[in-house]
Amino acid sequence: MVKYNVKIHEFSDGYELANKLASRISDLLLKSIESKDRASLVVSGGTTPVQLFEVLADRDIPWSKVWITLADERWVDTASRDSNERLVREHLLKKKAGKAKFVGLFTGSTGAENGERECNLRISQIGLPFTVLVLGMGKDGHTASIFPGSKGLEKAVDMDSKSYCVTIKPGDSDYERMTLTLPTLLRSENIFLHITGPEKKEALDKALKGKNLAAMPIRYIFEKSTSPVEIYWAP
């Protein structure tokens, strides 16, 4: 059996998970601010993190010293319902967290490839390593926008890449996407995988048992991370 460096935390429901993970993230951001006078948080889109965002937005943190960005973004206008930036602005960048410095990945360029240079410059302003990275995972085992079989997969997972982000196009998607590269994601001091529901647990169990990294790209994170990936799951 494959042995990945992970630690699984299980909770009774999504509310308990959101509160526990928000507390953990808050502590890590505060510790970074105390030692470095700054902190950074990378989050993911989708419906799963909404409850976490709502809880985190009201935590007592010197948010003006926190940089927030996305693990990936659909190449759509930020007013679109499909925009991860819109999701973050509606559910996280408000209340106390409204003072955080947000760095979006969508640049407004026609075509994601035309936005890569600007996107890389934006991420470089944050500074690495990131303090906290919160990833999600699809039922197919994708994470960020690193999808199995996607156009641009090899560039996205190239550990020798000097790019912070690259364009990627999932085969069944209507949109191009911008994703942080695997080496960029891994340059995080603390990595969390936030998933809920039985289907995601089934996908996780499958991912933890297999060796083919490209078949379920979350395995790249499990395999390449130098510290344990903490998995937060609730039914």
Explain the overall architecture:
- The chain is α/β, with parallel strands linked by helices and 235 residues long.
- The chain has one domain: 3-Layer(aba) Sandwich (Rossmann fold).
- It contains eight helices and ten strands.
- It has helices at residues 14-36, 50-56, 84-91, 116-126, 153-156, 182-186, 198-209, 218-224, and strands at 6-10, 39-43, 66-70, 72-74, 101-103, 130-135, 165-168, 177-180, 188-196, 229-234.
- Helix 2 (50-56) links the parallel strand 2 (39-43) and strand 3 (66-70).
- The longest helix is centred in the first third of the chain and has 23 residues, at 14-36.
- 45% of the residues are buried.
Distance between the termini: 25 Å
Q: Based on DSSP secondary structure assignment, what is the total number of beta strands? A: 10
Principal-axes geometry comes out as: globular
Q: Architecture in CATH?
A: 3-Layer(aba) Sandwich
What is the structural class? alpha/beta
The share of residues in helices is 25-40%
Sheet with the most strands, sense and barrel status: 7 strands, parallel
CATH class: Alpha Beta
Give the topology string: H per helix, E per strand. EHEHEEHEHEHEEHEHHE
